[in-house]
Write a structure and sequence with these properties.
The protein has 14 helices and nine strands. By secondary structure, the chain is an alpha/beta fold. The longest helix has about 35 residues.
């Protein structure tokens, strides 16, 4: 009995010594302690988007996951969700504010509901091409808009790319302003988008992206507007007959993180997720531009009629929406609008 009690005491002593750090653990080296904040805690990022797993945006999200998990030695894990599994853009953005989700990557249009100045990127025909958009989004004004997100318990880490939005419909070719007349077009929940399409003569209908295919299929709406990659990968060609390169809006994505989660990271981890969002964004843009070129050809192969907008017809569209732009300048912020236009002009030189 005495030997048994002695054995039990020895086991307890060894256990106490190990708990107090008397043992050696190869996993508690400098790199592991730095990445996890020294407490061994593994943090998890739930990252959700509305687009499907074939879209360049999701591939960019996988690149972000790869970089973060590698750079933090697994101290931060990234769970990825596509196809609106966690909700639409607005639902996921609100989840970030509440701290129940960590990352989402919406277009700037729904973000205008949180920071009105983001509507500057919804000004029709603002950017003439992608190169100009790249320069302006890297400029002081666009970066300053990311800073404003902190007031909404959000952190904007970088701009990604949705791309130029183009029109599809099931009724007829759209080549001129007159062709918009009466078309029921699904838009995002953004007042500037709605009023711009009204000015063009269309009947815009705001609707969650997750509901769009069914609405097109059932004829609830006649058409929609998105970049070619989205049009193809969501198989809208199955329920749409016509596509026009209206290029009416260049739509950036914003890589968002919950501020409460971001603030809980160490400085080193904050730098890792920031750098990863930027690096993955460059990768996503490259894929997106390659995809849009490829998918336009495939949309035509699937039977869609493609209509090229002439410079003269595009100018008529610009003229039609100009009163809307003037009306919204004060709502967006005249200083923001003027600065962006100045940067667009400078970027073209």
């Amino acid at each position: 009995m005495k030997k048994f009690i002695a054995l039990i005491c020895s086991v307890l002593l060894i256990t106490v010594l190990a708990a107090c750090g008397g043992g050696s653990d190869s996993s508690s080296g400098e790199g592991s302690e730095s990445a996890s904040g020294g407490d061994g805690e593994v943090k998890t990022i739930k990252a959700g988007i509305g687009l499907n797993s074939d879209h360049p945006q999701y591939k960019g999200l996988l690149k972000f996951k790869e970089i973060v998990e590698e750079k933090t030695d697994g101290a931060i894990k990234v769970e990825t969700y596509h196809s609106g599994q966690l909700g639409d853009d607005r639902t996921m953005t609100e989840a970030l504010q509440l701290g129940t989700q960590e990352v989402t990557i919406p277009s700037t249009a729904p973000l205008a509901n949180f920071v009105p100045e983001f509507s500057v990127f919804d000004i029709p025909f603002l950017f003439p091409n992608e190169e100009v958009a790249d320069k302006v989004l890297a400029g002081d004004t666009a970066q300053g808009l990311l800073d404003k997100l902190e007031e909404q318990n959000l952190v904007g880490l970088s701009y990604w790319e949705n791309g130029f939005r183009d029109l599809t419909n099931s009724k007829h070719e759209v080549a001129t302003v007159e062709d918009f007349e009466g078309l029921k077009i699904r838009t995002m929940e953004n007042d500037l988008h709605l009023d711009a399409f009204k000015a063009l003569g269309a009947n815009p209908t705001p609707m969650a992206f997750t509901e769009l295919f069914t609405a097109l299929q059932q004829g609830t709406v006649d058409g929609q507007e998105n970049p070619y990659a989205t049009i193809y990968l969501q198989k809208f060609y199955e329920v749409q007959d016509y596509v026009s390169n209206t290029h009416h809006i260049y739509s950036p994505f914003v890589f968002l993180m919950s501020k409460s989660f971001y603030d809980g990271l160490s400085e080193e981890q904050q730098k890792i997720v920031k750098d990863a969002a930027v690096e993955a964004g460059k990768y996503e843009k490259k894929l997106n531009r390659e995809a849009n070129e490829k998918y336009l050809k495939q949309l035509q192969e699937e039977g869609m009629t493609y209509t090229e907008i002439t410079p003269e017809a595009r100018q008529e569209m610009v003229d039609a929406v100009q009163p809307v732009i003037e009306e919204y300048k004060s709502k967006i912020g005249e200083e923001t609008v003027d600065k962006i236009y100045e940067e667009v002009e400078k970027a073209q030189k």
